[in-house]
């Protein structure tokens, strides 16, 4: 019986630590995106960024030449998002807050 309690005492903090990691709040970043000319550009970027692991939302504006992206910081970095958009032929750069 003591062994079972010890096991619970060891596993419980691990369980909570795991939960805390999963529920990390999403980070929101704004990227300036140059080179978009039409709605297809917007849709292309939105589609590609949304497919990245950990991205919860992506709003691209042709008018404002920017993209606002919410993502899980434990799964992805702002640099990886920037790189993905650049791969599509645009010029993305992380805006300073
Ligand atoms: Cu276009």
Write down the overall mean pLDDT. Answer: 87
Q: What class would the helix/strand composition place it in?
A: alpha+beta
Helix content, binned percent: 40-55%
Rg on CA atoms, Å = 19 Å
User: Which residues sit in consecutive blocks of at least 5 with pLDDT less than 50?
Assistant: none
Instruction: Count the DSSP helices.
Output: 3
Overall shape: rod-shaped
Name of the CATH class = Alpha Beta
Assigned CATH architecture? 2-Layer Sandwich
Count the beta strands.
Answer: 4
By CATH, the topology is Alpha-Beta Plaits
Strand content: 25-35%
- Sketch the topology as an H/E string, one letter per element: HEHEEHE
Biggest beta sheet summary:
4 strands, antiparallel
Distance linking N and C termini: 55 Å
* Spatial ordering of strands, largest sheet: 2-3-1-4
Q: Total domains, how many? A: 1
Ligand kinds: copper (II) ion
Topology, element by element:
Layout: H1 2-22, E1 27-34, H2 39-50, E2 55-61, E3 66-71, H3 78-87, E4 91-94
Antiparallel strand pairs: 1-3, 1-4, 2-3
Bound molecules: copper (II) ion.
Residues 37-38, 40-41 line the site of copper (II) ion.
What does this structure look like?
There is one protein chain. With 97 residues, the protein is of the alpha+beta class. It has one domain (25-94): Alpha-Beta Plaits. It is rod-shaped. The longest helix has 21 residues, at 2-22. The protein has a four-stranded antiparallel beta sheet with strand order 2-3-1-4, with helices on one face. The chain has helices at residues 2-22, 39-50, 78-87; strands at residues 27-34, 55-61, 66-71, 91-94. Bound molecules: copper (II) ion. Copper (II) ion binds at residues 37-38, 40-41. Copper (II) ion is lined by residues 37-38, 40-41.
